Amino acid sequence: MKTLFQRLNIQPKNIELYERALTHASYANEHQTLKNERLEFLGDAVLGLLMTHYLFDHMDEDEGEMSKRKAQSVSEEALVLYAGHIDLKSYLRLGKGEMQKGANQAMIADAFEALLAAIYLDLGFEKVKQVFNQIVIPHLKETHGMKDYKSTLQEFIQSGDKRNISYHVLEESGPAHNKHFKIVVKLDKQIILGQGEGSTKKEAEQHAAKDALEKGNYETKKVG
């Protein structure tokens, strides 16, 4: 991990935080240690604040355009892009089965967010901001045009009569280290627009939104 710290230009105080950030549930399950999901939850918020602040300072467009740009720049595809520039995939701790298959995009994106949370908790907001400016901002232009289906669907729906969409878990299966989610996106909590599946809720929600956009006509059934 020393090489990773050099790439990030940080001197960590609590190494365990970073080890946890890079620990997938499959590894944690096999070795009875902590997984990175709680750190990923915090890192999502840290990244969101950093990106929002940056776009506020550097964009003159209205809220809608800034929201669209933010969605692109913090999408799973974008996080994998940023992570690739520091070779984060090489440092992930995966279980034997996942190691054979290799880390997927969701694992890499989650670890990237968890890593930001570890830096924030260990070294503070100013240091994580420096890391953000160093490894995210130089590659921001590369995220232009990346698809964030959830934001696209939200924008499409709200451009009409301001109706609401929401995501609901239909099915959750598999062990803790290898979950599978089936999710539907609903209009006004009643009309199913689309359905998606994935190894994380985020992934399944993106697939559900994509399904809804591809259907286009929204001629769907009501549910109770």
Describe the structure.
The longest helix is centred in the N-terminal third of the chain and has 22 residues, at 37-58. The protein folds into two domains: 2-145, Ribonuclease III domain (Ribonuclease iii, N-terminal Endonuclease Domain, Chain A, Orthogonal Bundle); 150-215, Double Stranded RNA Binding Domain (2-Layer Sandwich). Helix 4 crosses helix 8 (105-123). It is built from eleven helices and three strands, in the order ααααααααααβββα. Helices cover 55% and strands 11% of the residues. The chain is globular and about 50 Å long. The protein is mainly alpha-helical. The termini are far apart. It has helices at residues 2-8, 15-21, 25-31, 37-58, 63-73, 76-84, 96-101, 105-123, 125-135, 149-158, 201-215; strands spanning 165-173, 180-187, 191-198.
Which features does this protein show?
2 domains; Ribonuclease iii, N-terminal Endonuclease Domain, Chain A; 224 residues; mainly alpha; 3 strands; Double Stranded RNA Binding Domain; three-stranded antiparallel beta sheet; 11 helices
